TrEMBL record:
Family matches, as PROSITE patterns: AA_TRANSFER_CLASS_4
Lineage per the UniProt record: Bacteria, Pseudomonadati, Pseudomonadota, Gammaproteobacteria, Celerinatantimonadaceae
Role this protein plays: Acts on leucine, isoleucine and valine.
Record protein name field: Branched-chain-amino-acid aminotransferase
Similarity annotation: Belongs to the class-IV pyridoxal-phosphate-dependent aminotransferase family.
Keyword Repeat: no
Keywords from the named record: Amino-acid biosynthesis, Aminotransferase, Branched-chain amino acid biosynthesis, Pyridoxal phosphate, Transferase
Keyword Transferase: yes
Organism: Celerinatantimonas yamalensis
Gene: ilvE
């Protein structure tokens, strides 16, 4: 990723990155007081479109509401800031990172309460998160020794900066052991999600994915896949999934804004299905990327043209 040359929208203005600076006493830096989004804009057959912009900004504002973080902008203003930031940077496709965080409001743990947060939007060029080859060949993943957060410890439904300490433990451990990514179990030992992706299993033509109660982020790509599956007459079952189901699945794939739809070819060095991108995963990938090349009808109005 490279954001060096791009303009960043910071508290209402598009400024060069070196001007978008914060205090070392920023509350967020010390206590993790931040919520954010990861959004993609695609170059489509009809021009650049942000994918499910309103849904991402709704989740951003929901995350802020959960933590009672105040900030001065409306959802529409943040959405327009994003479109504008892509235009001023001249990006045809991009990864977009809006962030709401508590700045230098004092070092008391409660100092951010009732005060306005800082708001920024950065855009950058960013290719396939787990590599272009991963999208075709699939990746090798492990089940992490780290569990996801308990639902009454940190709410996984909020996309908060602090949650990504858990993600870093899962991701770093997987890399150290030679895997591309880690899958975590929840506090009950049931399948949860990856460090930055939701997960689906395919068994006998049906799709299975863990429920929100398994400590997952309710992913927008996960929701997109549920919609696309329905159109393809594929059943999606949201239910608790035991670890061993990963080894016995016909197909496993991970999904997220950054990871898009990435097949999993092995889990804990056990080959999954044929050890490559399976037919259902391929069908969903084609339907997903078809939204941007015009082969899949945008019947839900997910494309937000800039
Ligand atoms: N889970 C976690 C922990 C994530 O960070 C992400 C990426 N935002 C996802 C799931 C997938 O969510 P989405 O499809 O909305 O990007």
């Amino acid at each position: 990723s490279d954001s060096k040359s791009s303009l960043i929208w910071f508290n209402g203005e598009h400024v060069p990155e070196h001007q978008a600076t914060v205090s070392v006493l920023s509350h967020a830096l010390h206590y993790g007081t931040s919520v954010f989004e990861g959004i993609r804009a695609y170059k489509t057959h009809k021009g650049t479109a942000v994918f499910r912009l309103q849904d991402h900004i709704q989740r951003l504002f929901d995350s802020a509401k959960i933590y009672r973080l105040k900030q001065p902008y409306t959802q529409e203003q943040v959405e327009e800031a994003i479109r504008e930031n892509l235009r001023v940077n001249g990006f045809e496709s991009a990864y977009i990172r809006p962030l709401i965080f508590a700045g230098n409001v004092g070092l008391g743990v409660g100092s951010a309460q009732g005060k306005n947060c800082e708001v920024m939007v950065a855009s950058m060029q960013w290719g396939a998160y787990l590599g272009e080859e991963a999208l075709e060949q699939g990746i090798d993943v492990c089940v992490s020794s780290w569990n996801r957060v308990a639902p009454n410890t940190l709410p996984s439904g909020a996309k908060a900066g602090g949650n990504y300490l858990s993600s870093q433990l899962i991701n770093e451990e997987s890399h150290r052991h030679g895997y591309a990514e880690g899958l975590a179990l929840d506090v009950n030992g049931l399948l949860s999600e990856g460090s930055g992706e939701n997960v689906f299993l395919v068994k006998k033509g049906k799709l299975y994915t863990p429920p929100l109660s398994a400590g997952i982020l309710p992913g927008i790509t996960r929701d997109t896949i549920a919609h696309l599956a329905k159109r393809l007459d594929l059943e999606v079952v949201e239910q608790n999934i035991a670890r061993e189901a990963l080894y016995l699945a016909d197909e496993v794939f991970m999904c997220g804004t950054a990871a898009e739809i990435t097949p999993v070819r092995s889990v804990d060095r056990q080959q999954v299905g044929a050890g490559k991108c399976g037919p259902v995963t391929k069908q969903l990938q084609t339907a997903f990327f078809g939204l941007f090349n015009g082969e899949t009808e945008d019947s839900e109005g997910w494309l937000d043209f800039i």
